[in-house]
Amino acid sequence: MAAERGSAFLLKIGDGSATPTYATVAGLKTTQLSINGNAVEITNKGSGGWRELLSGAGVRSVSVAASGIFTGSSAETQVRGLALTGTLQSCQLSFESGERMQGQFLVTRLEYAGDFNGERNYTLALESSGEVVAL
Fold first, then answer.
1. Which of 80, 87, 96, 129 lies 20 to 30 Å from 109 when distance is taken between CA atoms?
2. 6-134: what fold?
3. Phi-psi map region of 27: left, alpha, beta (phi>0 left; psi -120 to 50 alpha)
4. Strand order in the sheet with 60-69
5. How far is CA 133 from CA 60, 62, 74, 91, in A?
6. How far is residue 97's CA from residue 62's CA, in Å, rounded to a whole number?
């Protein structure tokens, strides 16, 4: 697998329509993706002392964390609105290889910070709701 640039790892947010059009959330400098799975252990006396896990069971989720410089883009404004209302929205993550992931996400954290003589920064966190699919 070839190395990929972090600048090509993009967070895109849907416009809310039935067939969403996605806009890139501008100003992001860092983006992080975590795929989480909770295992269901089924170890018993017949396991021979080895742990056994049940395939396909448990809860899976995708978490996204990102931070960047506030640019005032419409996608940033939309993220703020979603954070205030607690509304789920279709989001897409795209990578330099052309690989994409898509699902419903909830903005669980949005923070703004800025120094007197510097730029305004923001940090956000999203959590998946339902299935996240690779496209």
1. 96
2. Factor Xa Inhibitor (4.10.410)
3. left
4. 22-24, 10-14, 89-94, 100-114, 120-134, 60-69, 28-37
5. 12, 10, 26, 11
6. 20
pTM above 0.85, yes or no: yes
CA dihedral 77, 82, 88, 89 (to 10 degrees): 0
35 SS3 class: strand
- State the SS3 of 104-131: EEEEEEEEEEECCCCCEEEEEEEEEEEE
**Residues near 125 by beta carbon (within 8 Å), at least 6 away in sequence:** 63, 64, 65, 66, 107, 108, 109, 110
